[in-house]
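For concreteness, we quote verbatim a single protein encoded this way:
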Amino acid sequence: MYDKEARHIIEALRSGIPSRAVGQYFSEARPRIMKEISDRLDQVCDQGKSNGMIISGKYGEGKTHLLNTVFNLAHSNSMVVSYLSLSKETPMDKLYLVYQKIIRNTYLPMRRQPGFMHELEKVSANSPIANEMLLYAAKQLETDKLYYLFRSYLNTEDSDEKFLLQADLEGDFIANAPLKKIYRRIFNQPVKYNTNFTKTRHCGDYFSFMSHLFLQMGYHGWVILIDETELMGRLGKKARLNAYRNMAQFLLPEKCPESAFTIFALSASYTEDVIEGKHEYENLEAIYPNEQEPIKTVLDLLVRAPQLLPLTKEEVNEVLCKIQDFHGKAYGWTPNLSVASLAESTQAGGYLLRTKIRAAIEFLDQLYQYGKAGKTIINELGEETFAEDVPEIEDSE
C-alpha cells in the first residue's frame, strides 16, 4: 500500500515543478537564511513591521523551493500569502498588472486554492470591519476612490453591480464614470473625489487597502512572494527603472503596505548581466538626474542581494535521506541504502541541486523496479554492493 502524499512529493521532485508540499517537507536546508526570514516574519506578526528582501541564486539551486518553504512558514503563522512569477504579461513596471495577478494568487492560511472574496462577502454594511475599512479608505489613502467603491459594494443589492465592484477589487478596474453612477443610484449622492484615480499612478492604494483588510479579518500579516524577478532585465531602459521604483514599494519599510513582508527571487547573474551590463546607474543619472531615489536604493539592494550557495555535503545528504524515505513510502518498499551510496548515485547528475534530486529518484526507481541500478544490486537481505561506474543519468534540463 503506497502513501498518497509521499507519491505526490516524489512525482513533484521528479518533474522539477516547484511544489508547496515539497517546501513543507524539505524546509531544513539553508538554516541561516531561513532564520533571517523567520525573524522578519516574526517582526511583521508581533510588531507590525513591514519590510522586504531580495534573494539571488543560480538556476536550479532552490530559489523557488525556498519561496515555497516560506509560503508554508507564513501560513503556519496565520499570514495571508500571495505568489507571483513575473512574466511578459505581468511586468514589474506596470504595478496594476502585478496587483491583478497577485490578488488572483492570494491564499488564506491553510487553503489549497487561492481566493478570499468569499470571506469579504461575509462583511456586512455597518459591521465593525466595514466601518473601519471605510474610515481607512477615506482618510489613509492617496485617493478616496476605494471609499466610494467599497461603500457601494457593501450596500448594493444588484448582482451585476456587485460583480462589477468585486472585479474592481480584484484588479479589473472600472472607469470612474460607472462607479459614480452606481454610487449616486444607491445613495442619491454625487461622488466628489479628492484626487481623480488612475490605475497607473494610484494602484498602491489597493495594496494598502488589502493589507489593512487582511489585518481586520484577523490574519497576522501579508506575505508576497515574487519569483522570476530577473525578467525585468528584458524590459526597456526606462521601463526597468520604473520597475525598480515599483519594487521600492515592497522593499523599503516606509513605503511597504501595512504588516507586509515581500521576497523577490532573481538570478545570481542579474547584477553582471543587467545592472553592470546595461549600465543601470548611468541610465538612472541620465533619465532621472534629479529624482534618483528610491531607484538607486533598490539598485543597491539588488547588487547586495544574498546569494543562495550550493548546499553543503551534510545538507545534501539530509535531503537525500528524506527522498529515500518518501520513495519507500510512495511505492511501499524499503530501500535500505546507505546515504553514501545514494549520494554517489547523484554524481553523474551534475552540480545543480535539482538534477541531483532527479538522479537520486531515478536511481531509486531502478532499484525498486529491477533490484539493481548500474552495478548496485539489492540482495534478498536488503543489503547492497556499489561500484563507481553507475551509468550517467542524462540531465533533461
In short: The radius of gyration is 25 Å. Strands lie at 51-57, 80-85, 106-107, 222-227, 260-267, 372-373, 376-378, 384-385. The first strand starts at residue 51 and ends at 57.
